Amino acid sequence: MNFDYDLLVIGAGSGGVRAARIAAGHGARVGIAEEYRVGGTCVIRGCVPKKLLVYGSHYAEDMHDAAAYGWTIETPSFHWPRLRDNVQLEVSRLNAIYMQTLANAKVDLLSHRAEFIDAHSLRIGERTFTARYILIATGARPMFPDCPGAELGISSNEVFHLETLPKRMLIAGGGYIATEFAGIFNGLGVEVTQLYRGEILLKGWDMELRQKLHDAYVARGVHIHTSAVFERIEKLADGYRAYLSDGTLLDTDIILHAIGRRPNTDGLGLDKAGVATDAHGAVQVTAASQTSAPHIYAVGDVTNRVQLTPVAIKEGHAFADTVFGNMPWVADHTTVASAVFSQPAMASVGLSEDDARAAGFALKIFRSDFRPMKQALPGGAERSFCKLVVDADTDRILGAHMLGPEAPEIIQPLAIALKMGATKADFDRTVAVHPTAAEEFVLMR
Hints:
The chain has 445 residues and is α/β, with parallel strands linked by helices.
């Protein structure tokens, strides 16, 4: 059978674009379908614009602290539309770069939604295309709660485009997206309430870091309402009223739903292609990202393995090298570093203390709790916290965790050490760079 393409990719996010580019580099004829903008969640409506907002929200604190360092800043003011629009200009710039990357690789961009007709055919816009191999890289989308009035809230897709900055915001969720936006809007002067069905934010992270960040948010003025969910939401003349499961009523100007993300598989016609999904709608794949249809693969958030952009990129690259480059390898999902760009930031690599104990390790725990040097003159209450989880039998470091300024930048190189099997003795032999926060990881006793 003659196919239009050797590879058709559905979704031009980070994983799909990487796979398309690498496959084309191996000589494949590649097309990529995208119904919106090129770049995916991370570039268009996720980690990139969100981190720019994190930077913007920090300036109020920085200007306050500047007085202790001799600077006088007269009556500073904040203009939300300027920050919002500048962030979107950067998003547009990155979108153009991604499009140029595809063009340079001679990948055809098909700017329409794709749907399976059969196992080798896709309807893209008004046309039908066939492909020898198909890659599903459609990502995930925000979930809304199952309650009356849920549609009155917005998701993390729309929050970047607010016409005006609200005075009050209710953010539902206790994961990294909700927590990051709570820090952003609190920093911009919004009265923020974060609603979480659990007791302490950021389930799955090391408990000590979770508790310290939770306490830091409360100290910053974020109202954290735990152990409750929405029963219903109503529109008021001047905002919204949320009725909670514990009987509380909360009035606010805007409600942001950040309670999780669901794989984007609805309407793709996966049943026509013989592609199996799990109970959550995620495409089921092997370690090599192969679906139940042998010529169809899936990478990234749509598989609900590790929902991180760099992981999707690794998966997409491995797929393209394996299928088109005769260079088989699989993405490694172990010891993956991750960060929450909260305020203060939080980052980890490896096992939490609880997970390490549950896995049966005998442990040695090393901790360092200190005030960041930058706060020495302003006298701020913010503290940093570093933690190492060590296998007592082998001395191997199982986990490294940090809460504090620049934590994500510090954990990134530590991830290399953990990937290589570093021991506590290796860290102890390393000479510190002084004065830095990172030196705490080689000084803990």
